[in-house]
Amino acid sequence: VVRVTLLTDFGTDDGFVGAMKGVLATEAPQALVEDISHQVPPGDVAKASRVLGRYWREYPPGTVHLVVVDPGVGTPRRGLALEADGRLLVGPDNGVFGRVLSEATVWTAVDLSETDLLPAPSSATFHGRDWFAPAAALLAEGAPLQALGAHVMDPMTLVGPEPSRVGDWLVGEVQEVDRFGNLATNIPGDEAERVVLVEMMGTRIARHGTYGDAEVGELLALLNSDGLLEVAVRDGSAARMLGAGPGTPVRARVRRPT
Amino acid sequence: VVRVTLLTDFGTDDGFVGAMKGVLATEAPQALVEDISHQVPPGDVAKASRVLGRYWREYPPGTVHLVVVDPGVGTPRRGLALEADGRLLVGPDNGVFGRVLSEATVWTAVDLSETDLLPAPSSATFHGRDWFAPAAALLAEGAPLQALGAHVMDPMTLVGPEPSRVGDWLVGEVQEVDRFGNLATNIPGDEAERVVLVEMMGTRIARHGTYGDAEVGELLALLNSDGLLEVAVRDGSAARMLGAGPGTPVRARVRRPT
Amino acid sequence: VVRVTLLTDFGTDDGFVGAMKGVLATEAPQALVEDISHQVPPGDVAKASRVLGRYWREYPPGTVHLVVVDPGVGTPRRGLALEADGRLLVGPDNGVFGRVLSEATVWTAVDLSETDLLPAPSSATFHGRDWFAPAAALLAEGAPLQALGAHVMDPMTLVGPEPSRVGDWLVGEVQEVDRFGNLATNIPGDEAERVVLVEMMGTRIARHGTYGDAEVGELLALLNSDGLLEVAVRDGSAARMLGAGPGTPVRARVRRPT
């Protein structure tokens, strides 16, 4: 069974996702299509890269991940197909695969524009339907990656800011706010494990193991399921309580190694 | 593989869609169910007709498209099953199939109320679960259309206003606003190809090939992926910038044929 | 064909649902995954229980219903697997299965924490991915319920208030507001059938058969598709018109048996 997953910024209101699914059903009739999200904020390539980072390797090898967050549609940006640790990925070359490229043990990429297997897009504004979905269908049907285009050595990546160290403190920032108002920072887990105290927006926040270890309504810092330091409120929204969001500075006190 | 697609105005908050999917799983266990959208504005039959227009023919023949946007549920409006260019469709007879009927090369329709194959709906308010999903399941399982009811020659259609011509200008209106704030007009593509300039809300708007051809924040007019003239803003919302929406007048200057 | 359905409060913005689907695809590759909703209000166990009540038995026996609305994640609350009238269910033991347990003819429950078949969760905050999805995959692959843990006799239930009777009046309350602004009460259908008049927020509301029997914009009371008395407005929102919501009192006059 081959699965094709879909991640877009189309919303579901207008039927654009339906058009892509119809193309997949026609051109890869045996594939199972699974929605990841169509609610990526319009054109937010960095967010799409982080979301993709959460599931691409949970799916088994052979899965095709189709990602259409494409603010440059119709301009000469390239289209890519990738194989990364056995998973296949299709989408625009705008950084949306940045997280995958940094996590994969091995990867190969090809330039979709350099192939005769795919039609020239029939619209200037809907390459998801006219170009990327047909490419994903070819891969789902077993076409080899190399048949889809010439090798690309320099796919675009997006590199976010890294936390720095100042004495016993790590200084980083909020990277993402999730639906629950939890504030994920850019402080990675190997550091986070030694964190004893966090400061954000002038507030000192205690380290806990999980949400339920704090009192209802209390701020806490914890290691989240992406392996990052996170600031949260039990049964509430840390984003709202602190007035914090992407880019808000965070300082974390680490225990000295003994 | 037979697919059943779902388009409703139910939202996903309440489990109504789940009930329909459960009926399909029970009565057509081999079918693959694919969501199109459950976010059609409540009762907006015209919007549902346009959304359906974007995907019904992208799916292969044999696909069953189930559409439940049904403000008249429980009143004596008919239920329909259609075959149009090989695709099968089920839903209320309220105009939701208007776009399909105008686009199909051939179509046949039957009246679901004139059959013994379907149970009388067990609720007065949820025909999606009790009547339309069972009808879709029968078609997915291979029942012939004729078995589901008597022929209908006059399914309801919705006909929107057509643009008119005044000298070198086409005069139309905005038909739909999509998630990105793009304003799709009722000016069709064969005309749109000769458009050189657009006026809306007192603003003159230049014609471009695609979003990326304009400057960031600049208004542009282009031919969209439905084949209609559209007004957009690069990386922004034309609806918000112009204060425009469905029904807003638009004038387009066309190049004279040489 | 085995189906696994998903009900969560994760939203779809962040890719958490994608991670769970990836685990299912890896560990139960033949199963078909169907979304019910990811829009349960964060942590609203009572709402999730009502939503689950709408579809769990519409699906055929053998279906696996995975429910992750889990405000107590990481605390010592149990994880459950259930068999109820032939359907299989997996989720936290926090009342989310209350409706199922009250509706099922027969049920058996086991405690997921008492098994070696499942890994210890690798995160403290994402048991959907690390614990419940693997359990659902085992059931979808045919593992017997008993293999997943020791019997539980006392799964948590949530019991809402029951309506009371005062002379010819039933006194109850609004239980749920749906997407259309319809107000579902806790007055059950066998009583509702004898209701002739309803009072809510000081307004007298006539009994009708279905929405279309009232005038546009008129309030009406009817028997809804869950078998409960409901207050609605034709083509409008009763919640907005009356300023009512969960907990709003309602009185219903019943016809005396003759």
General description of the model:
Three copies of one chain form a homotrimer. The mean pLDDT of chain A is 90. In chain A, helix 1 (16-27) runs parallel beside helix 4. Chain A is of the alpha+beta class and 258 residues long. The N and C termini of chain A lie far apart (51 Å). In chain A, strand 4 and strand 5 (87-92) form a beta hairpin. In chain A, 20% of the residues lie in helices and 31% in strands. The first copy, chain A, is elongated, with a radius of gyration of 21 Å. The first copy, chain A, has helices spanning 16-27, 45-55, 98-103, 127-140, 189-192, 238-242; strands at residues 3-8, 32-37, 64-68, 79-84, 87-92, 107-111, 150-151, 164-166, 169-177, 183-188, 195-200, 203-206, 219-223, 228-233, 249-254. In chain A, strands 8, 9, 10, 11, 12, 13, 14 and 15 form an eight-stranded antiparallel beta sheet that branches. The interface between B and C is large, with 33 and 38 residues.
Notable features of this structure?
homotrimer, 258 residues, eight-stranded antiparallel beta sheet, seven-stranded mixed beta sheet, 15 strands, 20% helix
Count of helical stretches of chain A: 6
Give the topology string of chain A: H per helix, E per strand. Answer: EHEHEEEHEHEEEEHEEEEHE
Beta-strand residue fraction of chain A: 25-35%
Cα(first) to Cα(last) distance of chain A is: 51 Å
Q: Name the average pLDDT of chain A.
A: 90
Radius of gyration of chain A (Å) = 21 Å
- Principal-axis shape of chain A equals elongated
Number of E-state strands of chain A: 15
Instruction: List segments of chain A where confidence is low: pLDDT < 50 over at least 5 consecutive residues.
Output: none
> What summary fits the major beta sheet of chain A?
8 strands, antiparallel
Oligomeric form = homotrimer
Biggest interface between protein chains, with counts per chain?
A-B, 33 and 38 residues
Helix content of chain A: 10-25%
Structural class of chain A: alpha+beta
